[in-house]
Amino acid sequence: MGIFGYLLWVLPMKRFSAWAGAAALAMIFIPVVVRTTEEMLRMVPQSVREAALALGIERWKTTLFITVRTATAGIVTGILLAMARIVGETAPLLFTALGNQFWQEGLDQPIAAVPLQIFSYAISPYEDWHDKAWAGAVVLIGMVFLISACARYFTRVKK
Amino acid sequence: MENALQVKDLCAWFGEHQVLKNITMDIRRNSVTSVMGPSGCGKSTFIRCLNRMHDLTPGFRVAGDVLFDGRNIYSEKIDPVLLRRKVGMVFQQPNPFPRMSAFENVAVGLKFNGKKRTRSEMAEVVEKSLRMAALWDELKDHLDRPGTSLSGGQQQRLCIARALAVEPEVLLMDEPCSALDPVSAAKIEELIEDLSDKYTIVVVTHNMQQAGRISDFVAFFLLGDLIEMDKAAKIFTNPADRRTEEYITGRFG
Prior knowledge:
Chain A is an all-alpha fold. Chain A contains eight helices and no strands. Chain B is an alpha/beta fold.
């Protein structure tokens, strides 16, 4: 995926950039989300759709407002799983976002990313940097945890 | 006009398999018509033809006319969406929308049918519909509870209220009591009788006692044919056809 992103964006733009990194991650993210969303929509029972149609609700409104709403929890979970997946991606970013030790000047410049930073610290020869890599990993896990907790909170079933 | 629906020579197929054969019947306005018969005789298929619920079923085909207010509902000019607002439906399994409160469940038809309404108008319609469905007193303090957290009987009445909220003229009910306990079923039956003052109701049932209690007219189906249709009292005391008699006396079905 990284090399693909490199060919598609980095070479034509002639520079590593945040955009290229985002695009590479999106190419991992979108198919996963689309597939889980499709699966979740399929799991909505036919009776729910029929009930909406029998009320004289147009088909597109039924799908958009009733079916999707019924499947919200599943769709959000799918998005989260995909996010958790790409949050830790390092390889695609190596070839696209590259990483940046300095002040960010724009999204068309190379950009730092937590997994990239962990990677560069982890392969360094210094004990001190290794410790920082471990700390980075904790931060990463904390972020994933935070995202999941928020999503669980917002999609909870009200009792 | 006396008849809410007139069905003429209605045939229906699932693929090659013919499930309804030349059904012709009139459904009287503001009455309860029961459609009775053994399983697989086409009862449910028949009432689903009356509001075009089969439109999305692959391989399904109909021939013949169903006149509603004198117009054929299968003509090109009829929008099935508008038709279904006039001809509502209640299903066998109570199917309130998950992830919606009881209030939203009733309001949802209004919310999506185009006309703008204020919050208080909505609340008014919801209250009216729930009262008609004999659910208001039980539910008025719990309107924000999810529809799916109610008991089965309450869910079914919620579905009836939901159907009533869009102000239909005809209410089709596909075995509305068969998934419910006897007490809840009795409540629904009572409700059907009350509603028949204002609405034309078509009920599918294979429970003969129920058909006898609630209906003004009874239609008896067998293997896709309409065997006989008459006043309920006539069907249950002196049916014209031998097969009807055998069915109601419990010799088959």
